[in-house]
Amino acid sequence: MRPQLADPKIERRIDELLRQMTLAEKIGQLVQYSATEERSAKTSAVNTAALNVNPPAPGGVDSFKLAEAGELGSMLNTVGQEITNHFQHAAVDHTRLHIPLLFGADVIHGFRTIFPVPLGTASSWDPELISALAHMAASEARTAGVNWFYSPMVDVARDPRWGRCTEGAGEDPYLGAAIARAYIRGYQGEDLSAAGSVAASVKHFAAYGAAEAGRDYNTTDMSEIRLRQVYLPPYRAAVEAGAATVMSAFNSLNGIPATANPFLLQTILRSEWGFNGPVVSDYTAVMELVRHGIALNGATAAAKAVTAGVDIDMMSHLYDAELPALVKSGRVPVGTIDEAVRRVLRLKFALGLFTQPFTQGSEVTNAVASHRPLARRAAEESFVLLKNGDAGESPLLPLPKNKKIALIGPLADNANDMVGAWSGANNFGDVVTLRSALMEHAQQNGTTLLYAKGSEISGDSEAGFAEAVSAARAADIAVLALGESSDMSGEAASRAHLDLPGNQQKLLESIAAIGKPVVLLVFSGRPLVLDWEASHVAAIMEVWFPGVETGPAIVETLFGDVSPSGKLTMSFPRAVGQEPLYYSQFPTGRPEQFPDPAHPGFVETKYVSKYLDVPNDALFPFGYGLSYTTFTYSNIKVSATTVSVAMLRRNQKAQPVNASATVTNTGHRRATEVVQCYVRILGASVEQPVRNLKGFMRVTLDPGEAKSIQIPLGFEELSFYGRENRPVVEPADYTVWIGGSSTAQQSAHFKMQ
Ligand code: BGC
User: Fold this and answer.
1) 632 has which bridge partners?
2) Mutate to test the pocket of ligand 1, among 150, 201, 280, 284 (most ligand atoms within 8 A of CB)
3) Whose alpha carbon is nearest atom 2 of ligand 1?
4) In angstroms, how far is the first alpha carbon of the chain from the final one?
5) Whose CA is nearest to atom 7 of ligand 1?
6) In terms of Cα–Cα distance, which of 321, 326, 325 is closest to 60?
7) Ligand 1 atom 11 nearest Cα
8) Phi, psi dihedrals of residue 148, rounded to the nearest 5°
9) Residue 600 burial by Cβ neighbours in a 10 Å radius (0-12, 13-18, 19+)
10) Whose CA is nearest to atom 8 of ligand 1?
11) Which residues contact 302 (CB under 8 A, 6 or more apart)?
């Protein structure tokens, strides 16, 4: 669906409105504020404050008065039927032209029924699941007056120091694009005006995830090939899937802040991709152009942003303050304003707000019981089993149901940290913690659960260690719930150290020293450095921040009611110094694995691309994740040995190669495998990564069952960005791997000629 496509009937109504609007009314459509604190307090909206993640409207701005004057276009994180209807009445009933407001909010991984953080749901590699989750969030939020989500965040992230990697799908553009489409389908449905649909805002355009050194808001600088090949595909996929709006990013790209960047906002977004919905700035990003040093004052900042293509000013208080004079003096053409207003009105019509501006019916104010099964399934699909038993020993998981368990750690009975960053309008009371679910399980199975917190998340107190050690001594198995707090990832939450915070590793060391089997559950919003853990703990499972169904999802997985099927979408490093670390790295002239038999004695092994202290590869690579069963791959084939370059150039829809394989469940349980297909291009005019993901699917198999799978490859998968910064195919050699991670070894070959 492409709701942004102009409908002639609606365009005529917009022309009509534009003819009647004063300049102040026009500019008002481009202005966005949250409610002032005073206004929020005057309504009794449930949990309004929970979504006021950013401060309220700046001093001196009364958003209600602006709405009544017809000089406010949209509101930020103002949530709840009562307060949204209150503002909507001001905009619709009290004004000349009755133009309704948009209510935009940061609903990122659930509105009231919180499901895992996006990096977690991405680990499911399950776009259908993600669409269903997005739709569930939209249907809940719409009952509270929200009609616009600042989601999905599709920024490719290759550096886990950047805390916002938790909000995205990880390091890969191909997977990122598939997931971006899934969100748009789920949020917007077939019809934006339907009861369960909201407009999506794909963010943060563009390359925000490439912040240097993983420090949030930091600058990005990259070649156009890298921009187009790695960073842009998920945004483009979202726009092609019909994303109604786009949010510009905080960062600058190659010296030009994204919020005043005509190359991004006009050349790429509007001209190349044909996007005709509104672009909203990020929070105060228009004002921040002054701090970036490309505007000496607010007037220049506003002029640069609006002429570059930012239609809506989120919270800067600059479009309303500066645009009237800028238009009167001719510095900003009125045509630019008209076009921006047109895009905003188009969205309001598409959402059906002119006919139905108010929200009625019962409002969702807590996690919805009937939505919990989907939230639980999402949590289960997000878990990634990183290790299960030491080499030569039998797997530790799943656990037998009759053993005495010691549950230890600061995240074991901690509702607040289970929801992760940007947890919508959650109520912490809706979270079922691991401790309470394990307790129920122990009661049902007639066993005992011992519990000790052991330590805090941060800090160096060892006061709780002794109790934890004695619990572990008295038990058959120790389950440790360790990791980060919610606020250690998300916005402005970069970390330079990526190990377990505080003295949690020390706690783990003292439990491991007892010699009882240890299961480590890692709660985090990003890849952590788990080097010590991987060599001292028998079983490790990454569980991210799982949301309201944390406890039941983990219990079902620990005891084998479900088998883990998640696969990493970001590489887990051995040491922070490897960052940015990603599987689709480029070759060097001096690879780590030397000497090369083809060039004996060419260089001493010392002069290769490596670290002195750690191997180059990830501790747990992209695409990796274990199961309670085993899968094998055989018959890796491609359907053609040669492909015609000329044919593929002519027919970019063709899929001339089918990559195929047989996947067999060689273990004893029914389980799901995420089959992955990687491609390498050798001999092209531009150096290509050592491999790139170009296909994937989830396959569920019974024990002993085998399935043949096919992955079609066409122009999209086989092309790359050439020297002219456009996708090209050239005569080259192609290698195709199919397997269960980015280190898959079995391959087939063909030539493009
Ligand atoms: C974040 C955005 C968010 C906006 C509105 C900003 O600080 O970068 O992702 O949508 O605030 O709350």
Assistant:
1) 664
2) 150
3) 282
4) 37
5) 283
6) 321
7) 283
8) -150, 125
9) exposed
10) 282
11) 286, 313, 316, 318, 319, 321, 322, 323, 326, 332
288 CB near ligand 1 (under 6 Å):
no
Q: How far is the CA of 83 from the centre of ligand 1 (A)?
A: 21
For residue 656, pLDDT beyond 80: yes
CA of 248 to the centre of ligand 1 (A): 10
Checking if the pLDDT of 41 tops 60, the result is no
List helix spans (H) across 475-628. 504-512, 531-536, 550-558
CB of 54 sitting under 6 A from ligand 1: yes
Distance from residue 203's CA to the centre of ligand 1 (Å): 9
Q: Which carries the bigger pLDDT value, residue 592 or residue 227?
A: 227
Residue 530's identity, in one-letter code, is L
Residue 208 Cβ inside 6 Å of ligand 1? The answer reads no
Distance from the alpha carbon of residue 317 to the mean position of ligand 1, in angstroms: 16
pTM higher than 0.85: yes
Strands (E), 327-448: 384-388, 405-408
Q: Is there an atom of ligand 1 within 6 Å of 344 CB?
A: no
**Element spanning 339, H or E:** helix 334-350
Beta bridge partners of 253: 220, 256
Judge if the beta carbon of residue 53 lies within 6 A of ligand 1. Answer: yes
725: alpha, beta or left, given left = phi > 0 and alpha = psi -120 to 50? left
Question: For position 423, what pLDDT does the model report?
Answer: 79
Q: What is the 3-state secondary structure (H, E, C) of 221-277?
A: CCCHHHHHHHHCHHHHHHHHCCCCEEEECCCEECCEEHHHCHHHHHHHHHHHCCCCC
Decide whether any atom of ligand 1 lies within 6 Å of the 106 Cβ. Answer: yes
Cβ of 282 closer than 6 Å to ligand 1, yes or no, is yes
Q: Is 109 in the pocket of ligand 1 (CB under 6 A)?
A: no
Question: Order of strands, edge to edge, in the sheet holding 706-713?
Answer: 631-638, 657-665, 706-713
pLDDT tens string 457-471: 999 999 999 999 999
Q: Sign of torsion, CA 106 203 543 115?
A: positive
And the tokens for 453?
């917190």
The domains of the chain, with CATH numbers, are 13-103+297-360 (3.20.20.300), 373-558 (3.40.50.1700), 631-752 (2.60.40.10)
Is pLDDT at 473 greater than 80 in this prediction?
A: yes
Instruction: Give 519-546 pLDDT, tens digit per residue.
Output: 999 999 999 999 999 999 999 999 999 9
| CA–CA gap between residue 281 and residue 279 (Å, rounded) | 7
Nearest-CA neighbor of 120 among 412, 413, 483?
Answer: 483
In whole angstroms, give the CA distance from residue 531 to residue 499: 9
Atom of ligand 1 nearest to the CA of 54: 12
Clarify whether 320 is annotated catalytic: no
**8 Å CB contact between 368 and 112:** yes
Distance 281 CA to ligand 1 centre (A): 9
Catalytic residue (choose from 106, 282, 417, 430): 282
